[in-house]
Amino acid sequence: MWNVLLSFSGLVALIQLLFLPFLPESPPYFLLQKGDKADCLKAMKQLWGEGNYHTEFDDMMKEKAVTKGTKIMNVLDVLKEPSVYPWLSTTLLLLLSLHLCGLSAADYTLFPCLDLLLTHLQESITPYVSVGVAISQLICIIFCSSIISHFGCQTLLWGGYLLMALILVLLETRLLL
């Protein structure tokens, strides 16, 4: 029944797509992006029913006044902004290091092994093994997060890269000899 399970996410997306035209835009979108007060109030009444929304409207007007001088940027504008380059390069470095460190390979090899293990177990034990793997991954995430917060990302990245470089030099030396 795995095909039914996989099609369930498509069914949920289809239901969302069908109901999307009947849902109103958010009131802050009308006021802050479009500058349309009437549609903002109309969306408030449609979302929250009849009532007095002057406090919320005043808060949005204050936010509009604060953000009046700022330009709304799309993705290309953000990428063209030089002040974003250090953050963008750091993010790309972290993503590349996550992909190259071997965790993806561990996941790709773990799940076929887990499937093989589950086929040889009794059917009554299979759910417990799946839950055990999920709990061990959760514990690993919590443990790794605490290590990262304790030592800091930069120290761990430098240490990991230096260790990988050392191992590669040792492997290359071994291959040459």
Description:
- The chain has 177 residues and is an all-alpha fold.
- It folds into two domains: 1-72, no CATH class; 73-176, no CATH class.
- 79% of the residues lie in helices and 0% in strands.
- It has nine helices and no strands.
- It has helices at 2-19, 27-34, 37-48, 54-66, 75-80, 85-100, 103-119, 126-151, 153-176.
- α2 (27-34) runs antiparallel to α3.
- It starts with a helix and ends with a helix.
DSSP strand tally: 0
Mean pLDDT: 76
Tally of contiguous helical segments? 9
Strand content: under 5%
Overall radius of gyration: 26 Å
Based on secondary structure, the structural category is mainly alpha
Distance between the termini: 54 Å
- Residue windows where pLDDT falls under 50 for at least 5 positions: none
The ordered H/E elements are HHHHHHHHH
Task: Tell the overall outline.
Answer: flat
Largest sheet: none
**Count of structural domains:** 2
Helix content: over 70%
